[in-house]
Write a structure and sequence with these properties.
Blueprint (H helix, E strand, L loop, with lengths): L7 E3 L4 H20 L3 H22 L2 E3 L5 H13 L2 H19 L7 H21 L1
Antiparallel strand pairs: 1-2
Helix pairs in contact: 1-2, 1-5, 2-3, 2-4, 2-5, 3-4
């Protein structure tokens, strides 16, 4: 897999650092699981999703540069690493909904959407745990 130098920088990570990415992502997912407020659940589902992407990218020996569009790049790269086009499709929908939630004051996320996104991100974490 090729990593675009505009968005990625080669970097080696220790197992300890990689485990911190996982722990942080799991913590975000746990917050989403335990909270009933939709916006809070949605925010932490999105954060967990990005952190699992950062974990997989770090395992490949790269760090993501903070650039416009880097969330989209994280999602696309995670999809490529795992060989799962659904990650790119559903992940981009989550990202777009997050942007609407953040930048459009009248857009509201629904319970159904949050539940679906949570299940999707939880599924990715379970896939990872099966590989460990």
């Amino acid at each position: 897999m090729k990593f675009d130098k505009n968005y990625f920088e080669k970097q080696n990570y220790t197992e300890y650092t990689l485990s911190k990415y996982l722990k942080s992502g799991k913590h975000c997912l746990d917050i989403a699981r335990k909270n009933s407020e939709l916006e809070i659940r949605f925010h932490f589902v999105y954060m967990a999703f990005l952190k699992i992407g950062l974990y997989y990218i770090a395992k490949e020996g790269y760090r993501v540069k903070s650039r416009p569009g880097h969330h989209k790049i994280i999602i696309e790269t995670l999809s490529n690493i795992l060989g799962d086009e659904n990650i790119a499709i559903i992940g981009d929908k989550i990202r777009k909904d997050r942007n609407l939630d953040l930048y459009a004051s009248d857009e509201k996320i629904t319970q159904k959407e949050v539940d679906e996104y949570f299940s999707f991100v939880e599924y990715i974490f379970k896939r990872l745990n099966n590989k460990l």
